[in-house]
Amino acid sequence: MKGDVLMAKVPLVKLAEANRTFAGHRVLNKLSLEIAHGEVVALLGRNGSGKSTLLKALSGLDALDGGTRLSTVPLRRIGFAPDRFPRLRFSAKEYLRAMGKIRGMAPAEADRRIDKLFELFRLETTTDAQLRDYSKGMLQKVNLMQALLEEPELLLLDEPLSGLDAPTRTELTHILLLLKEQGMTIVFSTHERELAARVADRVVQLQDGRVEPMTLEGEENSPNRVIAFRLMDAAAQGFYAAFEGVRQRYEGQGIWICHVQADRADDFLRAVLAANGSILSVREDSTRTNVRGAAYGGKIC
Ligand SMILES: Nc1ncnc2c1ncn2[C@@H]1O[C@H](COP(=O)(O)OP(=O)(O)OP(=O)(O)O)[C@@H](O)[C@H]1O
Which of the four pLDDT bands, split at 50, 70 and 90, describes residue 221? Predict the structure, then answer.
């Protein structure tokens, strides 16, 4: 725990007085931003305010015109999912294998990882369909999968849910929450305040080339307990509907995780046990303090 608190204070990546100019237009203007280990940060801003430019600056993929970028993460441990993903003449598996090769992964290791990602994203592994024939949602899943290929320490996502239908949005939101539970450091840009409020520990707004902290209306500020548990699927179906005080819920590999209003947590725990569930862990919701906390021992990917 002590180690986690210390890690939380170490910036994984830091921009100081960063400048980026395109054709005389200064998009980043003496911008300073630190991303702490295990933190999830949402980046809001109007169209053209420079969100993609900032994500690229954080990744180190794009050079700055001025200022500095400091990072403790090697480039290969940074996953980046751009806002546009090409419709290629490859199947998803062929594409991900090629990406693994380019990144210098051993073929067996890449295949192990790709299989896990197919499972996590619930994509059909055997299909030969090419990316150019994929739906937008499937394509975005492959985009996120390539960013997660090498178990990144820092995950940068440019508008990860933009233009997707409701079921895919829900599915991908749950995956983001699972990655967050594992302690992954994530920065994502979005136009959606609701997504930012739901997933991020911290929200910043990009305006006039700089970032300002932002508080979203309707954010829940009262404390939560994060409860991880197992339930039989059949029992889980009706479980939440009857329960007040559940603010977030998601599932992966048979483990359910709920963020429950603190004053309802004891009742919730009793209800899980009454439904023959087993409690894996209970902890304070640390998302308002940016302290990393592991909800359970299993790793999703
Ligand atoms: N490679 C480039 N060459 C020239 N101009 C660029 C380049 N990249 C970005 N810009 C310009 O920088 C500004 C910021 O672009 P950026 O894509 O970072 O904004 P954004 O906030 O991500 O926009 P959106 O919300 O529409 O995706 C825009 O005016 C854009 O035209």
Answer: low
